[in-house]
Specification:
This protein is mainly alpha-helical and about 400 residues long. The termini are far apart. It has 19 helices and no strands. The protein has helices at about 5-20, 25-35, 40-55, 60-70, 70-80, 80-90, 95-105, 105-110, 110-115, 125-135, 140-155, 155-180, 190-195, 200-230, 235-265, 265-285, 290-320, 325-350, 355-400.
Length: about 400
C-alpha cells in the first residue's frame, strides 16, 4: 500500500494535534476568567464541555473510519475544527465558551480514528505496542497545557487560540496528501456491528476500565491548571508546567502498558494498575501538602498511562471484526470518564468545603475495577483449561 509506512507517525502526529486543540479552554482558563466573569460551577462546565462531544462522537467516528478510512476522517475532522477555534477566539460570554467548547470536542473524538485504522497494518502480537504508541499522542495535551499559558502571557489568550487555526489546516492537508487511499475498508452495516458487540460482557468491562484510566487522565488534565492556582496559590505558568508533567508521565507510560500487554498477561497488569489507583485516590483524599498531592497525582498518571495502553491491547483481540464500533464505545466511555469527575468534585467542594469525598470515590471505583479484573483473569484461565480438556478429548477420540 502506498504510504503504508507513514500511517503510524502520521496518525500519531494527528492525534497530538487533536489533543492540543482539545484542551485549549482548560489550559487558558486562568486567563479567560479574568475577562469573562464565571462562577466556579460555570468554570468547571466550560472546561469539561469539550469532553462531551469528544466522547459521544467517538462511536460514529470509529465506525466511519472502518468504512471510509483514516485519511478522510482526519482530513474532514480537522477542517471542521476551524469554526469552533475561531469562534472561541472571539468569545465574550459563557454561552460563547460553551457553544465553541462543545464543537471543540471533535478534536478529542479523532482518537477513534487511529485505534481503528492502525491495527490493520500490523500483526496481533504487536497491537498493544502500536496502539500504545498512537495513544501517546495525548502528549498534545501537555504541549498546550505548558505552551498556551506562556504564549497567552505575552500575546493574550485570544491570539493564542487563533494560532491553532494554522495547526488544524496543516494537519488536514497532511492527511489529505499522505493518508492511505487504499486502506482496507469494513462495510458491515452499523446495526449489525452493534448487534455483534452489545451483548458481549467483555465490551462493557473494558469500557468501565477505560472510564477509570483514561477518565482519570482527562479529568486531571482539565481540572489541574485552575485547581492548582486556586488551591495552592501557584502562578498560572507554574500550574501549567505541573499539569504538563502529569500529562507527560501518563503519555510516556501508555506505550509501556501496551508493550507489557503484548508480553505478559494483560489482566495481571490491570490488577496492579487498579490497586495503584486505589491507593493514589486514598492519598489525595486526605488533602495533603503540595508535595504529597503532587506525588499522588504523578502516581495516578503512572498507573492511568499503563492502564490506557493495556486496555487497548485487549480490544483488538476480542473485537477484530467489529473494531470500529468497539473502539468507539470503549473510547467514548473513557472520554465521559473525564467529563463527570470535575463536575462532581466542584459540586462536592461547594457542598462540603473539601475534595476528600471525590477522591475517595476515585479510590472506590478503582477497587471495583480491581475486582472485575481478577474475575476476568480467572474466567479466561478457566476457559483455557476447559478448551484444553476439550482438545484432549477430541484427540483421544481420533486415536480410538
Amino acid at each position: 500500500m502506498k504510504h503504508k509506512g507513514l500511517q503510524l507517525p502520521l496518525q500519531t502526529f494527528s492525534l497530538i494535534a487533536g489533543f492540543m486543540v482539545w484542551v485549549i479552554l482548560s489550559s487558558l482558563m486562568p486567563f479567560i476568567k479574568e475577562e469573562i466573569s464565571l462562577t466556579s460551577n460555570q468554570l468547571t462546565l466550560v472546561t469539561a464541555i469539550p469532553v462531551v462531544l469528544g466522547s459521544v462522537l467517538r462511536i460514529p467516528i470509529g465506525y466511519w473510519t472502518n468504512r471510509f478510512g483514516a485519511r478522510k476522517l482526519f482530513s474532514i475532522s480537522f477542517l471542521l475544527l476551524i469554526f469552533p477555534i475561531f469562534y472561541i477566539s472571539k468569545a465574550n460570554s459563557l454561552a460563547d465558551l460553551v457553544l465553541g467548547g462543545l464543537f471543540l470536542g471533535i478534536s478529542g473524538a479523532v482518537f477513534s480514528v487511529g485505534v481503528t485504522s492502525l491495527p490493520k497494518y500490523y500483526p496481533k502480537e504487536r497491537h498493544g505496542l502500536i496502539n500504545g504508541i498512537y495513544g501517546a499522542g495525548n502528549i498534545g495535551t501537555a504541549i498546550t497545557t505548558f505552551a498556551a499559558p506562556v504564549i497567552a502571557t505575552k500575546l493574550g489568550w485570544e491570539t493564542t487560540v487563533q494560532f491553532y487555526l494554522i495547526l488544524v489546516l496543516a494537519v488536514s492537508l497532511l492527511n489529505f496528501l499522505l493518508g492511505d487511499k487504499k486502506e482496507p475498508k469494513v462495510v458491515t452495516p452499523l446495526s449489525e456491528q452493534i448487534k455483534g458487540v452489545y451483548k458481549n460482557e467483555k465490551l462493557w468491562f473494558l469500557s468501565v476500565f477505560y472510564f477509570l484510566t483514561f477518565g482519570s487522565f482527562v479529568a486531571f488534565t482539565v481540572y489541574l491548571p485552575n485547581f492548582l492556582v486556586a488551591q495552592f496559590d501557584l502562578s498560572k505558568i507554574d500550574a501549567g508546567m505541573r499539569t504538563a508533567g502529569f500529562i507527560a508521565l501518563a503519555t510516556v507510560f501508555r506505550p509501556v502498558g501496551g508493550w507489557l500487554g503484548d508480553r505478559f498477561n494483560t489482566f495481571k497488569i490491570l490488577m496492579v494498575v487498579f490497586a495503584g489507583l486505589t491507593l493514589s485516590g486514598i492519598l489525595l483524599a486526605f488533602n495533603p501538602s503540595l508535595m504529597l498531592y503532587s506525588a499522588g497525582c504523578l502516581a495516578v498518571a503512572f498507573f492511568a498511562g499503563i492502564g490506557n495502553g493495556a486496555v487497548f491491547k485487549l480490544l483488538p483481540l476480542y473485537f477484530s471484526k467489529q473494531a470500529g464500533i468497539a473502539n468507539g464505545i470503549v473510547s467514548a466511555m473513557g472520554g465521559l470518564g473525564g467529563f463527570f469527575p470535575p463536575l462532581i468534585l466542584t459540586f462536592l467542594f461547594n457542598l462540603t468545603g473539601h475534595y476528600a469525598i471525590g477522591f475517595m470515590a476515585l479510590s472506590q471505583v478503582a477497587s471495583a475495577c480491581l475486582i472485575l479484573a481478577i474475575w476476568m483473569y480467572f474466567q479466561e484461565k478457566l476457559a483455557r483449561t476447559n478448551q484444553g480438556i476439550k482438545n484432549a478429548d477430541q484427540t483421544m477420540l481420533v486415536m480410538e
